[in-house]
Amino acid sequence: MAAVGAHPVLYHHPAPAGDASSMSSYFSHGGSSTTSSSASSFTAALAPTTTALAEHFDISEFLFDDAAGAGVAGAPGVFADGAARPVVLPVPDAAGGGAIIGAAAGGAAAASEVPERPRTTRIAFRTRSEIEILDDGYKWRKYGKKSVKNSPNPRNYYRCSTEGCNVKKRVERDKDDPSYVVTTYEGMHNHVSPSTVYYASQDAASGRFFVAGTQPPGSLN
DNA sequence: CGGGTTTGACCAGCGC
DNA sequence: GCGCTGGTCAAACCCG
C-alpha cells in the first residue's frame, strides 16, 4: 500500500453563482492513512439534491484531473505534491456501478430506461489514484471485504461510522485498469462532514469576506 | 481500553 | 431445487 502520510482534508469551495447544487467541493487526499478507514476520501458525496444529481450530475463539476486541478482557484494547497491527484471519471459500464449510477431516490428523469432502482441514492465513479482509500472527510468503518467474480481485485465495504448515518460505500480497483479505483456510495449522510474545512472567500465587488462550506459555522441550529 | 480492521461464516437473491 | 455470488455479521485481533 502506498502509505503516504498526509492528512485527509476536504476542501469546500464556494459554489459558483447559479450552481444550485452547491456541491462543488474539492477533495484532496494527501495520501492514505495506513489504516484504511478513517477517512476515505472523496467528496462527491452524495449530493444533497438527488434529483439534480440524477439529471444533471456532471462529475466534472467536482472532480479534477491534473489540468483542472492545477487550475483550481481558491483552493490553494490542495495539491501539495503531484503524487496523489485523483482523477475521477465516470464509470464506464454499469454492472457493478454504471457510469455514475445516478442516484436513485426521487429523481431519475431517465428512469424510463431503468425499470426500478433502489430507493437509496447511489453514485459510482472511478478515481485515478494509487491509493484506494480516498478521503472525503467522512469517517468510514470497514465492515467487510470480498473478492468478486468479475474482478481480480477484492471489494471493500465501508459504512459511515457516525451513529445514525447509514451511508455505505464500496471500493474496488478497476478490473481493466488497476490504476483506477471504483467507488460506489450508497445513501446520503445525515450529518456534516467532520473534517469539513471552512474558509473565507472575498467578494470582489464589496470586498467582504464570507465563509463557505456545507453549512456556515454560525448557522448550525 | 476503546475503536477500528481482518476474515471466515452466514444469509439472501438470482439464474439455470 | 440447487449452486453461485454479493453483501453483511461477528468474533478475534491489532493499534494508538
Automatic annotation (TrEMBL):
Matches recorded under SUPFAM superfamilies: WRKY DNA-binding domain
GO biological process, one term: regulation of DNA-templated transcription
Domain WRKY: start-end pairs: 129-194
InterPro entries for the chain: WRKY_dom, WRKY_dom_sf, WRKY_plant
Coiled-coil region: none
Keyword terms, alphabetized: DNA-binding, Nucleus, Transcription, Transcription regulation
Entry keyword annotation includes Transcription: yes
One term under GO cellular component: nucleus
Main location: nucleus
Any one GO MF annotation of this record: transcription cis-regulatory region binding
Compartments reported by the entry: Nucleus
Domain of life: Eukaryota
Protein name in the entry: Putative WRKY DNA-binding domain superfamily protein
Gene designation: WRKY82
